[in-house]
Write a structure and sequence with these properties.
By secondary structure, the chain is α/β, with parallel strands linked by helices. It has 8 helices and 8 strands. The chain has one domain: Rossmann fold. The N and C termini lie far apart (94 Å).
Length: 247
């Protein structure tokens, strides 16, 4: 499994400079370019400064967009502590979490903050590494040849992340699996409605992307049934009518 860092944020610059990391970023850029043009709205926020800086902001269909980074980010428009988003509640239409869950100590708390600032019809895209992949297992081995990616906390699996999103009133709509080699295929595949053989081996992909939409159940007032709402006026009207019988 992954080797975790004791520091607050991960130092992933050494791993991103490797050839396999650059190939992985190409696959991820293709997935992002297929997902984000279909997400529209007024405001879009990308959380996390990843290898593809502003990759989400260039292909999104929103009017305004910003990038939020951690305290160690230099290219971000806004910096925050990784726990509290400096945004108003229900003010963002599209949120892209670009491998930010691996860089914080409490990924569930960050996801809850993202759900707080998301609007009623908002959508969220989460990019995360797959902790069950063979690539993640190799990162835990001591190797002197290439630097390893060391997250700050264990990233959730795709199934667990879907459960977290449903608890936050977000319904997953798309699931993409992608990565380098992993080990049966390389590239990107959509799991919901995709090829059957890709579903069988998709659990071993290096990374995944989940697209979820806000799903708020409307609150209706609970009152008496319709047949009880009748009726005093109706009974009064019927009682005042005289019925004449003719034989």
């Amino acid at each position: 499994m992954f080797r975790f860092l004791s520091s607050k944020y991960t130092q992933s610059s050494a791993w991103l400079a490797t050839p396999k990391a650059r190939l992985f970023l190409q696959y991820e850029r293709r997935v992002v370019q297929r997902i984000l043009p279909g997400l529209t709205g007024y405001r879009c926020v990308q959380i996390g400064s990843w290898g593809n800086d502003r990759c989400a902001l260039e292909s999104t269909g929103t009017l305004c967009h910003w990038q939020l980074g951690f305290d160690d980010s230099r290219s971000a428009d806004i910096r925050f502590d990784g726990q509290h988003l400096p945004l108003a509640s229900a003010s963002i239409d599209v949120i892209v979490v670009a491998h930010a869950l691996e860089r914080v100590a409490q990924p569930h708390a960050l996801l809850r903050e993202c759900a707080r600032v998301l609007s009623e019809r908002g959508q969220m895209v989460v990019l995360a590494f797959n902790p069950l992949s063979p690539w993640a297992l190799r990162q835990g081995l001591v190797s002197r040849r290439q630097p390893a990616f060391q997250p700050c906390s264990a990233p959730p699996s795709a199934a667990r992340l879907c459960d977290w999103l449903r608890l936050l009133e977000l319904e997953p709509e798309q699931l993409w699996r992608y990565g380098v080699g992993a080990p049966f295929f390389g590239g990107a595949y959509e799991m919901f409605g995709g090829r059957r053989w890709a579903r069988c081996v998709g659990w071993s992909a290096q990374s995944y992307a989940i697209v979820a939409r806000r799903h708020v159940i409307p609150r209706t007032r609970i009152g008496p049934p319709a047949w009880r709402r009748v009726t005093r006026p109706a009974l009064a009207r019927h009682s005042s009518v005289r019925v004449t019988c003719r034989r």
